[in-house]
Amino acid sequence: MSANFGLCYRHLLCQPESWPNDIDEMAASYDRELGALLDQLIPLRETTRRQRPSDPWFDVECRMAKRQTRQRECTYASACRRLNRALLRNSTSSESTDAATTRVTAAKSAWYEQRRAYRQLRQCKCTAFWVDKVKSKRSHQSKLWESVDKLLGRGRTSACSSLSAETLNSFFVEKVCKVRASSASAPTFSLVRDGVLLPQFSAISVDDVVSSVHKLPDKSSASDPLPTYIFKQVSDLLAPFVAKLFN
């Protein structure tokens, strides 16, 4: 998808002569332009996710195997991103490209192998749990049928659809606003050592922005207009605007 971000050249963020002078308008333009670009590449699609409790046989060993599988997947994704960056930069060194390709292949094989072992472990745990469960309840017909109902998923209550992510987010936003309003008149203080001054801020450069972005972890929140791992891939395009925005 990073290759498609060449569309960004036609947007305001890559046209310095079109950048607004007002700081608030620049921040709004950043969110607006990236949102419009993402809407073209990956349009919004609503999905329904049903919550359910963890399976009773999903123990510590399964959690460890799941964590290892996720780690292998992240390693593979990271290797793919490094390879994509090398290809986007049109690296002339074939050795570096070949090494990156080798790392991607090795990471993919390790992920697939771990994922296969994780699925086999889950299947074994599930089978052993329910076989033992049925055997232990064989002498009690009512309890046996209760176990069978649980095995078949009968009697489960449907997930509550009245509580959405927006409702939960609004609840916490209102809660934080109330706390801030109630503590607005509270006295504040800061401890500063004698002789410590901050007369002015130093301007940041485009290289500073690129370097800082590549040091970020590949994590994002709902308030980020662009996922961090994609921002790293197009940081060369967006860094001039971000540097101007911060300065």
What's a quick, concise take on this entry?
This protein has 247 residues and is mostly helical.
Give the SSE map:
Blueprint (H helix, E strand, L loop, with lengths): L22 H19 L18 H29 L5 H43 L4 H12 L12 H18 L23 H9 L13 H6 L1 H12 L1
Helix pairs in contact: 2-3, 3-4, 6-8
Note down, in words, how this protein is organized.
The protein is an all-alpha fold and 247 residues long. It is built from 8 helices and no strands. The protein has 2 domains: 1-44 and 203-216 and 224-247, no CATH class; 60-152. The longest helix has 43 residues, at 94-136. The protein starts with 22 loop residues before the first helix and ends with a helix.
How is the main sheet built? none
Helix-strand pattern, N to C? Answer: HHHHHHHH
Share of β-strand residues = under 5%
Shape: extended
Number of domains: 2
Name the poorly predicted regions: none
First-last Cα distance:
30 Å
Label the structural class.
mainly alpha
User: What value does the average pLDDT take?
Assistant: 81
Relevant terms:
extended; 0% strand; 2 domains; 247 residues; mainly alpha
